[in-house]
Amino acid sequence: MQTYTRVFCAVAIALCAAPIAAMAADPRPCELFSTKEVASVLGVTPEDGLSYGPIIMDNPFMVDYDVAPTVWFCLWSVGEESFSAHVTRFRSAADATRELESVMRNLMMHPDDNRPLSEVPGPGEQNFGEIRARNGGNTGTWVSRKGQTVLGIRAARMDVKRHEIRREQLRDLAASGLRKLP
User: Fold this and answer.
1) Which of 51, 78, 88, 160 is a plausible cystine mate for 46, CB 3.0–4.6 Å?
2) Which CATH number characterizes residue 138's domain?
3) Distance between CA atoms of residues 81 and 69, nearest Å
């Protein structure tokens, strides 16, 4: 009987510790997408991704100054084309939700800000996406929140004729990236 109790306690501790360990692990955004996946969106094969982070974002660029999330970033580029992935981890899902809602409210209040992200269905609990012509090329952005983690991907200067296809590709990449996040 005592052996079963010890085994049960060990399993319970392991199950409780796994989510904590996963949240403590760095998300490593350069490992979320292969060069082939990035090339499928850009239309050209980029160099290996360059990784930055973790960075604690306790700065005035955040809408809610008390949030202070941690950010990891990866950039793939070739010529003027680039693809980036940002993983932002907030202290709680409520902080992440509030921050995304604040960002969207501020963007909608400034329509001339040239950033028309709109809420769309997708792989996360909150999803925002857009593709539009900008600076001689097309830029696509997708942002998805899952719990306290936000994944943002952006393809700049991609050659695109049918916007809805690229938006679907970005949504699918975001879904793939969310599944790989620790």
Assistant:
1) 78
2) 3.40.1000
3) 28
